[in-house]
Design goal:
Elements: H1 2-22, H2 26-44, H3 50-79, H4 89-103, H5 112-117, H6 121-128, H7 133-141, H8 146-163, H9 170-191, H10 193-217, H11 222-229, H12 233-247, H13 255-267, H14 271-297, H15 309-324, H16 326-336
Helix pairs in contact: 1-2, 1-7, 2-3, 3-4, 4-7, 6-10, 8-9, 8-14, 9-10, 9-13, 10-12, 10-13, 10-15, 11-14, 12-14, 12-15
Length: 337
């Protein structure tokens, strides 16, 4: 029965995103977002863990605030139905603000790391990836309020770089990493819709690789990471390479969407914004490097028995082979087209 409930709410979660992304009216998009919200709450709240129930309540409050602002923007828009959204500044500001709050972009990120802290890795993966699709799609449909979005982009860069430094919880580190990538995706969506989709797909693949390792090894904190990774050198190598790829270092696949975003921003003469984003992302890259170096260098004498690891190792190896060799494949595909 438990699995049937999860399957039912998971199906409605996907349905809500599809309804929001494919609707031809703003009210239909709002309904899709509400279906998505009300389906995700039962998935993350369990009676066995009080932290997950706390996270569900925090998530519900933040999303209801965003939905209320979105509904207000739709009402304002309906009173001026003869004018397009691009010429209606008030409703555009409210609309974009509600979407930034829904996806957890800075400076409206206050709920995101706190919700992540109480979730298991499966629900964290859904929150990091799938729950970003509908708000990003609606943001690309709506009128672009450039000042608000540029402020959000720069805030995402600096907040993720500063706030992610002193955390030992891997879930909070992944949350601040997601805030950084949200800034890059918003910047890509300002100019060319396909680039943020490519960015999102690559970010989701890399995040999936890392979360699968954390879930299979049951790791939630930095100390557990050092203990577990010393038992498996191959898994340690894959973890380090994927974290460097998530930071966007050039030999890895994670550099590819940043490369495309920087190129389109330079082509559109947004030089100063591109420079600020690159420099601010270095702070995020610093705590990626701190995690990878501590995992690589530190060793502990405690031995931990890992059960049923051969199947997990095969799964982790298979999903990492695509990621670690895909930068060359991606550039070849773009050269062909």
């Amino acid at each position: 029965m438990w699995y049937l409930n999860k399957m039912l709410f998971g199906s409605f979660l996907a349905l809500g995103t599809m309804v929001a992304a494919s609707s031809y009216s703003w009210m239909g998009m709002w309904m899709g977002l509400e279906i998505n919200l009300l389906s995700f709450i039962p998935l993350i709240s369990t009676s066995k863990n009080m932290y997950s129930s706390e996270s569900a309540l925090k998530y519900f409050i933040a999303q209801v605030m965003a939905s209320t602002i979105l509904l207000l923007a739709i009402i304002i828009l309906s009173t001026k139905i003869l004018y397009p959204l691009q010429n209606n500044i008030q409703s555009s500001l409210l609309f974009n603000t509600s979407l930034l709050l829904k996806m957890g972009a800075a400076p409206l990120h206050f709920w995101f790391p706190e919700v992540m802290e109480g979730l298991n890795w499966l629900n964290s993966m859904i929150l990091l990836t799938w729950q970003k699709i509908a708000p990003m799609m609606l943001l690309s449909y709506s009128g672009k309020t450039l000042l608000l979005l540029v402020t959000a982009i720069i805030s995402c860069m600096f907040v993720s770089g500063v706030m992610g430094q002193n955390h030992l919880s891997l879930r909070k580190i992944m949350a601040y990493s997601s805030i950084n990538h949200i800034g890059w995706m918003i910047a890509a969506s300002l100019f060319f819709e396909m680039i943020w989709m490519i960015y999102f797909i690559i970010y989701s693949i890399i995040t999936l690789n890392i979360v699968v390792m954390f879930k299979k090894l049951n790791i939630f904190y930095m100390k557990q990471l050092t203990l577990m990774m010393n038992q498996e050198p191959l898994i340690k190598m894959f973890f380090i390479l994927n974290f460097l790829s998530l930071g966007g270092l050039p030999p890895f696949l994670g550099f590819f969407p940043k490369w495309l975003t920087i190129q389109i921003m330079i082509n559109e003469s947004f030089f100063s914004l591109a420079i600020v984003m690159i420099l601010a992302t270095l702070a995020t890259l610093y705590f990626y490097m701190r995690i990878t170096f501590s995992t690589l260098v530190l060793s502990m004498n405690t031995f931990i028995q890992i059960n049923e690891f051969p199947t997990h190792k095969f799964l982790i190896m298979s999903i990492n082979l695509v990621t670690l060799a895909s930068l060359i494949l991606s550039t070849l595909i773009f050269n062909f087209f």
